[in-house]
Amino acid sequence: MRIDGLQYCNWSRRVFEEMREGGVDAVHVTIVYHEVFRETVLQIERWNRYFEDHGDLIVRAGSGEEVRAAKAAGKTAIIFGAQNPSPIEDDIGLVEIVHQLGLRFMQLTYNNQSLLATGCYEAEDMGLTRMGREVVAEMNRVGLVVDMSHSADRSTIEAAEHSTRPIAITHANPFDWHPARRNKRAVVIEAVVAGGGMMGFSIYPHHLKDGSNCMLDSFCGMIADMADRYGVQHFGIGSDLCQDQPDSVVEWMRVGRWTKKIDYGEGSADNAGFPPQPDWFRSNSDFPKLEEGLRAVGFDQAGVDAVMGGNWLDFFDKNFGPAA
Q1: What is this structure's pTM?
Q2: Domains of the chain with CATH codes
Q3: Three-state SS annotation for the chain
């Protein structure tokens, strides 16, 4: 089983074909950055057309069993997620609605302060808000996974502690390995895994040691170190692949509607666009190289299987449905 914990590509038949070439069985796709509820529905409409036009390659999924069925049919399962709580606007009742519409992951923040928690680019981290605590409880109830990939430290720790179900960091890396602002400090990772949570390792160059020049053995060595430290069962891939996206999309991701200025996010105008991917992971067809890299740093077959998708599948089984 090969599963990617997050992608935001410029979707096309070529990308879907590369998923099949790489043997990718499921992908958590971002359908929301700053879209409100009605705009989220429009994104689902757009995906329904993808499923109609490319049904020989992809299929919608909202459970572990549907991922298994997709694999058996030789297709890639597509799982919907939001990188912001904007789809629920200021209405807790929409948590259940977006889950019914197919959303399975929702970040409590995207870099900035939200109604729920604090993003990693804010100067002050106030933790979960009153609404944030209520929304986390509602997400737990319906089976919408709490994703803290772009959240600040205190907010992430409080989400892990307040949530009665495991939470996720779908796409980030350890701060100790590469001190990017959005990578996660050890205390944050410890809080997430203590509750049975999952972390997907990102191949987005701003999150990699040595950026676009990061070597496969460095990336896989980092995964091995994390598995030794916390247990392999907590980790997978969350590539954050943004293949074929124009640089203009970065402006929407970082700016949305909250400012009239350009926000350079990672630190400077040099980071205004998408950086080149490492040569060992340019598309979904490169997934087999990750397996080779994991073996090269000492993972046995069981460990490779766990990191490449088994852990995510187990997480889907336990967390995509209503609370028991």
Answers
A1: 0.96
A2: 3-319 (3.20.20.140)
A3: CCEEEEECCCCCHHHHHHHHHCCCCEEEEEEECCCCHHHHHHHHHHHHHHHHHCCCCEEECCCHHHHHHHHHCCCEEEEEEECCCHHHCCCCCHHHHHHHCCEEEEECCCCCCCCCCCECCCCCCCCCCHHHHHHHHHHHHHCCEEECCCECHHHHHHHHHHCCCCCEEEEECECCCCCCCCCECHHHHHHHHHCCCEEEECCCHHHCCCHHHCCHHHHHHHHHHHHHHHCHHHEEECCCECCCCCCHHHHHHHHCCCCCCCCCCCCCHHHCCCCCCCCCCCCHHHHHHHHHHHHHCCCCHHHHHHHHHHHHHHHHHHHCCCCC
